[in-house]
Write a structure and sequence with these properties.
The protein is of the alpha+beta class. It has 2 domains: 74 residues, Beta-grasp domain (Ubiquitin-like (UB roll), Roll); 82 residues, DNA polymerase, domain 1. The chain has 6 helices and 5 strands. Strands 2-1-5-3-4 form a 5-stranded mixed β-sheet. The N and C termini lie far apart (52 Å). The structure holds FE2/S2 (inorganic) cluster (FES) (2 copies). The site of one FE2/S2 (inorganic) cluster has 12 residues, from loops. One FE2/S2 (inorganic) cluster (FES) binds next to loops.
Length: 168
């Protein structure tokens, strides 16, 4: 059966039905409930987590397929500080009812980790699978752009610092 790492901690999923979707294993067996059940058929994105850093719908993924893989949920996104996407979400007051927001944030953060400076089309494409019944799409896009600017600025600052400190 699957041994997986969830938010940095080792978990054994021994004893679970191997066809159980990861979403159920996370919520009902690992006690990680930031991840949400929306549609259960891969259409809404509420259940989005990272599998080895890739945004993935956990409602469709059987635990048997996950042995040795690393799962990150909204609870594990912040390390020493909030992720820039989380900070931008707060700044833009994105959430309304909040139900879809963990999935939205995990998709947005996965996009920016791979592509810190996405175009509008790239943002639309990456976020297309995350539905918000409250219609927070405009704030979501604004927050992604704010997070992008923050991540690019951090990278520039880091590069400038490391160039100055690199011995010649
Ligand atoms: S609950 Fe997984 S996509 Fe809707
Ligand atoms: S904030 Fe309510 S569903 Fe997105």
């Amino acid at each position: 059966m699957a041994n997986i790492k969830i938010n940095g901690n080792d978990h054994s999923l021994d004893g679970l039905d191997p066809t159980m979707p990861l979403l159920w294993a996370l919520r009902d067996h690992a006690g990680i409930q930031g991840v949400k059940y929306g549609c259960g058929v891969g259409q809404c994105g509420a259940c989005t987590v990272w599998i080895d850093g890739i945004a993935t719908r956990s409602c469709l993924l059987p635990v048997a397929a996950l042995d040795g893989q690393t799962v990150t949920t909204i609870e594990g996104l912040a390390t020493n500080a909030l992720h820039p996407v989380q900070r931008a979400w707060i700044e833009h007051d994105v959430a309304q009812c909040g139900y879809c927001q963990a999935g939205q944030i995990m998709s947005a953060a996965a996009l920016l980790e791979k592509n810190p400076s996405p175009t509008d089309d790239e943002i639309d494409s990456a976020m297309r699978g995350n539905i918000c019944r409250c219609g927070t799409y405009v704030r979501i896009k604004s927050a992604i752009k704010t997070a992008s600017a923050s991540m690019v600025a951090s990278a520039l600052f880091y590069d400038a610092t490391s160039t100055e400190e690199t011995p010649v």
